[in-house]
Design goal:
globular, five-stranded mixed β-sheet, alpha/beta
């Protein structure tokens, strides 16, 4: 077993791993497209993206989730076109996401993620420890979210 393989416990070269992943991608394309179509028809969808690196090259992973389906889009850019490839020009349901600008015109109705909002409130409290307005804002936001059941669901 080689320790330099891309899959550490398998004796695969990078080219073999790449060929295997390309074959799996081809084999599963129909299922992937079906899940994307189902997601695009949902009433509520949750969307987020995160960056990562392959060597020195940066890329993104997007996640699209609804009550019964989750779809990941790996190794792509961060632009609006990446989300539109799954959801279409404008998603007709409610989109739940952070406040990244791409989402602004992607959804007809947009709900900001409670977790992202709480993190921003915490950051403001930490940046301004002597300003009680930020503490009060956080306390009231936390009370609102916790009484709505959103914290238990998230």
């Amino acid at each position: 077993m080689r320790s330099d393989g891309i899959f550490h416990s398998l004796d695969l070269s990078k080219s073999q791993a790449n060929a295997l992943l390309n074959q799996l991608s081809s084999d599963w394309q129909q299922e992937y497209d079906t899940i994307a179509e189902l997601l695009a028809q949902q009433l509520v969808i949750y969307v987020d993206e995160t960056d990562w690196q392959v060597g020195k090259e940066g890329c993104y992973t997007w996640v699209f989730s609804a009550a019964m389906h989750v779809l990941f889009r790996y190794g792509v850019g961060r632009g609006k076109a990446e989300a539109q490839a799954i959801l279409g020009e404008q998603f007709s349901g409610i989109g739940v996401s952070d406040d990244y600008a791409v989402y602004k015109y992607l959804f007809r109705e947009h709900q900001l993620c409670w977790a992202h909002l709480l993190r921003k409130a915490i950051k403001l409290m930490l940046q301004h420890p002597h300003d009680n307005h930020y503490h009060q804002f956080f306390d009231e936001l936390y009370d609102l979210i916790s009484t709505s059941g959103a914290l238990a669901a998230g």
